[in-house]
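DM from R.C. (forwarded with permission)

"hey, sorry to bug you on a friday — could you get me a structure for this? deadline for the figure draft is monday and I only need the backbone to look sensible"
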Amino acid sequence: WVAMRLQLFSRVLPYGRFRFLCQSRPLQVNALVVGEVDRGQLQPVTLSAVSAACEVTRPSGGSVAMMLTGNKGDLGDAVEMARCISGVGKVYYQSVAWSHPPSPEFLAPMLTSLVRRDHITHLIAGASSFGKDVIPRVAAMLDVSQVSDIIRILDTDTFARPTYAGNAIATVKSLDAIKVLTVRGTAFPKAQVESSMTADLEEVAILPDDDSDSQTAAKVTWLGEERQESVRPQLTSASVVVAGGRGLKSADHFELLEKLADKLGGAVGATRAAVDAGMCSNDMQVGQTGKIVAPQLYIAVGLSGAIQHLAGMKDSKVIVAINKDPQAPIFQVADYGLVADLFEAIPELTDKLPTRE
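My reply, with the result:
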């Protein structure tokens, strides 16, 4: 039947015109970015997700929207910022009565309903702890395969993502009608935030498609949240990161890195070996099983450069390594290397740096 219709259609229209109609009108792509809000502030990884959404929708002239959920008192600033982001045409928001962040069990059914209602073709979030918690649930509810941690968009269906701790890049083509993606924040530029609000605004109150989804969310109780308060910038968004490894030997010696980081206005990171040894908290871990960073300057102190750690920092613009072992693998990826005892080099370097005002 299809062949007969195409044959008839080709007789009516000239071949060139028929080929133009078939090839030059791609299906419109509509992307929905899941915004990450923390204490009323839109997180930087969301801006990278918007850039990815704009890239995937641009060929078809599709639209980019953003969904924000949170407490009404904390959501206002994030909504205003989202409406100013270049490329975002519409901002959905949903206010909740409770003060704590909405649980993934609550968000996933709501996002699933919104995707189906508005015929979204690409659901995108940052590959952060938030995105890794929410997006797989949505993919399961939509019965599609998720493509995680993408670093490049080849077309609307095909994406590149790292594998084997970043030593290989896999090209993945999704055949699902709805693409569910998480993007690596360091792989995409942050979308520009303009001075004026141009995006449309819509408050949504979407109920889950299935009563079982509501029952699942009702079984979850918020117990609390523990935070490591710091005056330093966040590890994933800092322009300077000073990271230490097992060579520091004890938690007390991490104060050397903290003083250096304060002089540079940066954040402090660590290897998994240092975290496992109890030298620092696990929220400081950089690597394959930790946080992915790409600062302007990464100073690696007393760490060997294991492949799992390199997976989390090798995209840094400038890498400086300080290690007393000249054969340490970290020197193979470092732009500048200093073979020296860190307990002598770091205090000297800190003293010679000017104090930030």
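R.C.: lifesaver. Residues 258 and 268 are 6 Å apart (CA to CA).
me: no worries. The chain is about 30% helix and 20% strand.
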